Amino acid sequence: MELIDNVRHLLKDDLTDELQPHANLSIAAASFSMYAFNELKKQLEGIDSLRFIFTSPTFTTEKTPKEKREFYILRLDRERAVCGSEFEIKLRNEMTQQAVARECADWIRKKASFKSNRMQSGIQGFIYVQKETPAAYTPLNGFTTVDLGCSRGNTLSSFITKIDYPETEQLLKTFDNLWNDADLLQDVTDQVLSCISSAYSENSPEFIYFVTLYNIFTEFLDDKRFLCRGHDTPDAELATAFNRETHDGRNMHYDLIDPKTGNHYKPNYNRVWAYIPESMQKLLDENRVIFPRDAEKRPMLKRFASELNLSVDPFSTWISDVGLNTEGTRAVYRIFDNMNLFNYAKPISLIEKIIGQVLNNNDIILDFFSGSATTAHAVMQLNAEDGGTRKFIMVQLPEECDEQSEAYKAGYKTICDIGKERIRRAGDKINAELRMHNDESKKKNDPQLSLTASDADNFELSITHSELDIGFRVFKVDDSNMKDVYYSAEETSQQMLSGLESNIKEDRTDMDLLYGCLLDWGLPLSLPHTSETLDGVTVHTVNNGALIACFDADIPESAIRTIAQRKPLRAVFRDSSFATSPEKINVTEIFKTISPNTGVKVI
After folding, report:
1. Average pLDDT, the chain
2. Where are the extended beta strands (E) located within 118-257?
3. What is the pLDDT of residue 496?
4. Distance (Å, rounded) from C-alpha 116 to C-alpha 124?
5. Does residue 173 register a pLDDT over 50?
6. Which of 18, 189, 211, 224 is least surrounded, with the fewest CB atoms within 10 Å of its CB?
7. What is the largest CA-CA distance in the chain?
8. What is the spatial distance between Cα 81 and Cα 83, in angstroms, rounded to a whole number?
């Protein structure tokens, strides 16, 4: 036996010697990081296989009881750690993430399998190297650069015991028993691959989110003076720039001196400070100026939330509060019955966070790059949580799916098809959960009962709806319903007249015509409408009589009189619905007699 302290003697160095060509590696650990793979890449490329067990539920689909909800916070950290743990922040910011992720993903496809403990009871972590002379290491927290001794973590000491043969055989037997227990473990190889693949996609949104936020807050990361104390108190600190665009005539162009270090900070080029020297000195005396360690960076004004007129609590960063694109990809994966139809979807929790920060619960949310319709999913989820009546408008070009993709083979020809089906499935799922838990609430006679959504989304749904409105309509940009007729009298021949009997294009349906009328009259496209058969013809009623339309041919007078008796604000008919001009005139007279305030239109 040998003790590895990860200070003078690193686990990485020992594994470098032990991972000989054609060895087989078995690891049980809480997390797996592609940066740990990168540290041992040369050796891992030479082994025959890796079997990896996540010692606590990670990437699994089972639901967890509400009283165990705190577990999800740890799970999110473990799943994020695949693309770099919280202690590997500098590695994630070195702009090498794509290359590392691609190499790691390729290696996993060839040699690795991942399973996760699906039970609440934990499993002890260890490494077993199976070769001519086996070696094992225990205890092991995670397979990360910190655990290998290559990066600093948050512990003062991390001792690992190396076990030699034959004592290693008991660990191998334990691992084999776990690996072959289908009730205990769930295969999560595809989920791990999906997570890592998102890190090397072109312009990966996850990578952009992180790098953008990291560089925004980078000057504050090494000094706790610059971090907010938390936005749950009236005195939460906020850092605000205090340069000005123009000079107003007073002496506001001067060097600002840090009284503690003596560093000089000049105002930004072509700008001045927002305060005259006397006012700035008062801020310095009150410790209201934040000086960065780097003299090339800008001082900031410390403000307090209690001084601001805010309708929402301020926050400094979303990194610790929201999921990354792996969460979004898993949500799509699960809602489509474990089919990988759309990679790099936006995380639902991120969209919820944005909506919660800037919008009221009855606003309209517009997403001009809707993709798989994550925003629609998030809006419905929020409405279920807090009883809101938010509406969404999703805009997406009908970009075609690759014919070799799983989405195309499943019948989804465009991204729009995926988004529409996701909205349907997400809405049905939310309503099913609401109905189920409302039934449970009635049985327990507890109106305050809440429900926990699937672990893919980690949401609390309050029982505020018996049924959520999940309806939506789909529109596409098109040309007019009317034929394009540009012929002068001289150009018109007898043979052409038969084609001009109707001024409406032949491929247009009743719904095309109805919504064309709504647009012409400036009515919202979201108004409810119903269709019914009346005296043998189809009649469409919008918003309980805001508009009534019938586009059938040969409309009987009885149907016209019934429509008029309902006294709609507007009535629309098709020109070809009437065989003769007297019949058309008769319609106008009927409405003048029965409902004179109705606006009648014939198209």
Report:
1. 77
2. 126-130, 135-138, 160-164, 185-187, 237-240, 243-244, 256-257
3. 55
4. 13
5. yes
6. 224
7. 106
8. 5
State how far the Cα of 419 lies from the Cα of 261, in Å rounded to an integer: 56
pLDDT tens digits, residue range 428-457?
A: 998 888 888 777 766 665 544 444 444 434
Beta bridge mates, 367: 394
Separation of alpha carbons 357 and 139, rounded Å: 43
Indicate the burial class of 348 (C-beta count within 10 angstroms; 0-12, 13-18, 19 or more): buried
Whether the Cβ atoms of residue 83 and residue 197 lie closer than 8 Å to each other: no
Dihedral class, residue 567 (left if φ above 0, else alpha if ψ from -120 to 50, else beta) = left
Q: How many other CB atoms sit within 10 Å of the CB of residue 378? A: 29
Residue 227, token pair as written in the block: 């971090």
The CA radius of gyration of the chain, in Å to the nearest whole number, is: 33
Place of tokens 């807050």: 217
Tokens read off for 302: 């410390």
| Token code pair at residue 140 | 């092991």
126-130 and 135-138: which strand pairing?
A: antiparallel
Residue ranges of E strands in 368-417:
391-394
pLDDT, tens only, 300-354:
888 776 665 555 555 555 555 555 666 777 788 888 888 888 877 888 888 888 8
Whole-number pLDDT of residue 471: 87
CA-to-CA separations, 274 to 312, 359, 504, in angstroms, rounded: 26, 31, 64
3-class DSSP state for residue 164?
A: strand
pLDDT band with cut points at 50, 70 and 90 for residue 72? very low
Q: Tokens 């020992």 appear where?
A: 14
CB-CB contact of 186 with 115 (8 Å): yes
Residue 456 CA, distance from chain mean position: 11
382 phi-psi bin (left φ>0, alpha ψ -120 to 50, beta other): alpha
- Cβ atoms 538, 572 nearer than 8 A: no
Please compute, for residue 277, the number of CA atoms within 13 A of its CA located in the half-sphere on the CB side: 8
Closest by CA position to 396, among listed 376, 411, 410, 380: 376
Higher local confidence (pLDDT), 321 or 189: 189
Beta bridge partners of 400: 414
CB 184 within 8 A of CB 119: yes
Q: Is the pLDDT of residue 550 over 60?
A: yes
Q: Is the peptide bond before 556 cis (omega within 30 degrees of 0)?
A: no
Tokens of 543: 């918003």
